[in-house]
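> Could you send the Methionine gamma-lyase prediction when you get a chance?

Sure thing. Input:
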Amino acid sequence: MATQLPPAESNGSFYDKASGPEKVMVSSMNGSRNEWWQDPVQGLATVRHEFGEHGGVNMSIEASATFTVMEPETLGELFEGKLGPEMDFYIYSRHFNPTVLNVGKQIAAMEAAEAAYCTSSGMAAIASVILQLCSRGDHVVASNRLYGGTHSLLAHFLPRVSNITTTFLDLHALDTEAIRSAFTPTTKVLYFESISNPTLHVADIPFLASLGHDMGVTVVVDNTFSPIILSPLRLGADIVIHSVSKYISGGADLIAGAICGPASFINSMMDLHQGALMLLGPTMNPKVAFEISERLPHLPLRIKEHCNRALSYATYLSKLGLKVIYPGLEDHPHHNLLKRMANPGYGYGGMLTLDLGTKERAYKFIHYLQNNVQFGLMAVSLGYYDTLMSCPGSSTSSELSREEQEKTGISPGLVRMSVGYSGTLEQRWSQLREALDRLNLIADQVTGNCNSS
Ligand SMILES: *Cc1c(COP(=O)(O)O)cnc(C)c1O
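Output:
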């Protein structure tokens, strides 16, 4: 499945011809990755291990803003693009930094991408990718189920500052004609999330990627909810974005992002005269990059356990007659689709939602869980080792109007859980059960016990 980016001529903003692909800053890092890439874990293990300056098992942090050269001519050659990171020449850390480049190589290997670069946040990655692909007056076709910040960026901010407009629509209905008719001659991007926040709709990536390519646009997928589980580039997407602040970090202590795609695209983002990352400046701090590089090796293990726990909670909650949305359950409308697309052996994601009908019941439930039985924390975000609980209607999706929320299935009583893996399963289940019993939330009193299946 070759990545199909539009040729330079068809999209003037795509990369600056003055520093076109002949002046490569990062190369296609491991040749044709698609030929040997089998799975994210296998991919991660093929990355060259970088040692520390003194032979340390961990790479050193290149904590320099600027880089020195031996000859004055070298600086000129750097700015002309004749020398670059692949030859171990660096200019300035808002441009390429060796530590950030190294973690980018790890993330690229995980995503089966030719190249990747890291940003200061997920939103920085999203905004700069859109601004790299679209010029003033261009158009985006996007899913109507997006992270609140991305929705606001596309619905409000970009139209105001650049007249880049977006048509939002239900990409899950798979009404091919309805989706096609949203494209205009100025459409440059098809944008969606692999698993969408908070209703856990799963995008049919191969279908949408081929539709996007038929329409001549770049297909961009936010894979924040499903690193390791889904590999959108292998399924036909062109560019993958991550909020690294979530599962990839896993510590809820960092804000970071990543952009994965063809080397030509990553280089275009870094172009000294036309690159959105270089010129808007939200590249990653090398100290943060080091932290991330220490966590990537155990991301697959963490993901497996997030998925295990989420599947067991979802199974038992749904046996109790509660309204659970989890794509790992067979009754989820996209269960088979996810099963077909997922890398085998990792699971169906660590997010689940529980619809308790009213905001009051939802609030009481998460309050009881946190404050009475020490199950989880009332907080937004995801991917932490402890369970995080929020009510999307009044928090992360509050950017959407009530009408938009209704259209996309965000009920006021929706509780979103990013399922953690701390504590034993038995302990957590009895805490959950206590909250449900004390607050009389169980519709059909079926005895649920995590040891009885
Ligand atoms: C959190 C999140 C973002 C934004 O990422 P930040 O790192 O917070 O800027 C984008 N997309 C999704 C799906 C997210 O969950």
